[in-house]
Each structure stands twice: as structure tokens, then as C-alpha cells.
User: Fold this.
Amino acid sequence: MSTAKIHSGHGAHARRLKHIERDRAWRIAISALVTLLLAAGYIVADVNGLVPGPLTVAPVAKTGSVLSGSVRDAKAIAGPAELSKPIDKNAVNAIIDAFAATPGVGGDFSLAIADADGKIVDSRNPDTPREPASTMKTLTALASSSTLDMGSTFHTDALLEPLPAATKTGQSTEATLTLKSDGDMLLGTGANDPNHINGRAGLATLADQTVATLKKQNIGQVHLQYDDTLFGAVRSPANVASHNEGNTNFTGVASMAIDGGRQWKGTAHDPDQYTAYPEMSVTPAHDAAVVFASLLGQRGIAVNADVSAKEASGGVKRIATVESATLNEVMAFTLRHSDNTLIEEFGRLLALKTGAGNSPEGATKAVKNELDKLGVETTNLHMADCSGLSEGSALEVKTLVEIQTHNLHSGPGAAAGEGLSVPGFVGTAKSRLKDPSAAGLLRVKTGSLDEVTSMAGNVSRKNGGVLAFAVVVNKPQDYWAARKAIDTLISALAGL
Assistant:
């Protein structure tokens, strides 16, 4: 190759390199400008509170008490269900006939199936009052979720009484400390647990915060009290003991408790998923205070004498606090575990919020009042409690169906539907499907007592559309056969 060609090739290559470098410089400049504009836009949005970030100048929202604030409207997160698709009445009738003919069911049952608007397509004995067992919880869930602020949380606080004015500098001081909560019965013994509902607020975290403040004030010893006055003197429905043998199904509502009052005695379990039913404490608030005292001691704060129950005095200062999961999360936990104590607590919170009376009777009155406001059929409704555990409750299946019709529509009370068990996946109905292909298509609440097997829920039909249903069997000829007949029934409903 000649020297001229070589130089010519080098010159062309140099020109190409120069062109590439010029283009690269322009791209970098443009990219930098776009980045600056985006950053500036984000900063403006952040400052005005339009996007999450550290620069906002908007006031921080304060979490209100569970008994204050307004109900937040539910927002759609998925496309609308096909609510208007008709249901074949002949097919429904055939399913009901098959259920009624199942050996062991007997004749003491009521069953109703309705469309999305609550119109009953077909039924058997819909006007006959029956004992509902835990399907009663769906009434309390809808009433309380429609009225309480389900986005709020429970607060558990350490409250310090003012120290004497003449406290000597450098001298360790004794103080009075009060443990108080506005209803968290799912406290944990460890650190705050953001991954679980049960134990979201941890007493160890509360102790860490408390000790840090006490040491700053040179306080090395405390007298610990706990305030459990929130729910007054009567904590349990009158007849609940009849179905609470061994104290495994219920303990009286309290302002605070660890793990709902369950005493596992070293048995390992997932805080949010369990099927065993250990004995429950009859002094859950006292137990929480004793654990808190131990945690303070482990951190160098002496707790003198025994902890005592006493209402917090005026003028106390909150020096530490932990927050529970939101009420809608606690409701989901309650329904999926069919937790009798927690649903009774929701009834009591509703009664306090609406002024119906701080008692079990006030709670049932409050539930019925709110259902009446929602237009739910309450004829022949008698609530011996809010959970269905006590003897003496009765209702028509039409009431249960109307509750589920509400759960098919967005609006206040959405938490009552979101927490229902999903057959095939989660909750007390996890293993209740005869047809595995229907898994995930139903949200239901089960009910079980010695002479009651029941279920109420709503269904996303395989062929499109939705429906609501309720079935209650009292005194079945064969309990397990009747229970399995319900499993077959709900699988068939999904196929409509």
C-alpha cells in the first residue's frame, strides 16, 4: 500500500473519531440536561408532597385512635366483576336438592343462594332462625369495618409520672411507670415485627425506647403499673363458657395481650399461621405487664415489687410507644383464624365508638344498629355475643347472604370481605373444597359447634359472574357427612 493511501486512511479514521467524539459529547450534554430536569421536577414534587421522599414540607399525618377518625372509602385495585351475569335457577335448584338429599344432613337446615344484587335465586327454609356458630362473625366484621377507621392502629405506651421537683443531681431516682394500650391483643415479646400481623408491635422495642429515656433522666428503678380499664368490668358474654372448655376458644377482651392471650408453653409456631388451640390466659393484660417488667430488668432498670393494675393518673408523659398492624390487617387475622376474642373486641370497639355501651350487650346492640343502617335484614336476629360461640344466638340465612352481598361491592366495610378464608389456600376453609379446580374462587367464613356446621361466603363463578350464599345445618344426623356435603356444595356453586 502507498504512503498516500495510508495517510488517507488515517485521516478518514481520525475524522470518524472526531465525529464520534462530537456526537458523544452532545449525547452526554443532553443526558445530563434531562437528568437535571427530572431531578428538579422530582424535588418540586417531593417538596409539595406529590411523591414520597425526604424533602416534603407537608405536615406529617398523625395516626388517630382506633375510636376516632372517619372511615376511609375503599379504592378499586382490579377490574370490575361481572356482577350482572344471570344465574341458572334450575342449576341452583339441582345443587340444593343434591345437598338436601345427602345422607347425614337431616332436615334442620337453611340454605340460600343470591345474585350480586342480593336477590335470592333459590333457597330452602330461608326464614327459619338457626344457630349460626362462627358465621356470626361476618355480621360483626361488616358492622365494625363500616364504622371504625380500619386504617388506624393500636398504640401501646409507656407513661411516666412526673418526678418530684427536688431530685438530687447524680442520685438514682425511682419513678412510677404505667403500661397502657388502647386494644392491642396481638403484642409480641420481641422487637417490632414488620413481617407479621401478630407481633407487629413488640414489647422489647417498647422496653428499649423506655429504658433509653429513663437513663437520660437518671432513673434506675420504677414501680410498674398497667392500665386495663378500657373495656370496663364485664369482659365476656354471659354464656360463652358453654363452648369454652379448657379455656381454649376464648378469653375476656383486654386492653392488651401477647399473642391474643394464647399460652404456647414453648411450642414453636408461625405468629400468623397456626391451627392448634392452646389454653388461653385469663389475665392477659397482667401477663403483658409482667413480661414488660422482665424486659426492663434485663436492660438495667429495677422494677420494685409486683406489677399492679391501676388507671393511669393525669399528667403522665408518654416516653415510648409502639404501633400494631392496621385494623384491617387485624380483622383479616381475626376472620382467617376465627378468633373469638378478637371479634368480640371489634364489637366492643364499635360499641365505644357509637356510644352503645361498654359491655357485651352494648357490643351486640352496636352491631345490629350498624347493620340496620346498612339495610341488612335483621328480622329474627338474636345475638348472644359477637362471635357465635355462646349458646342462644339465632339468625336467618338471608341475613348472612346479605352480608356477603355487601362484600361483593366496594365501599365502607371492605375489610369484612378481604379477610375471609379462601378455600384451597388460607384460613379455616383451606381444606374444605371437594373440587380442587375451584381453589381461589371463593371467600368464606366457616362455623363449627357441637351441633352446628355452617358456611357463608361469595363466589367468583368459573364461567363468569358472582354469587353469594349461606348454609346453616343444626343438629345434623351425621356431623361429618353434613360438613362434607357443604364442601361439595361450595365446589358446585363455583361451577355455575
Summary: The two ends are 85 Å apart (CA to CA). The mean pLDDT is 86. The longest strand covers residues 317-326.
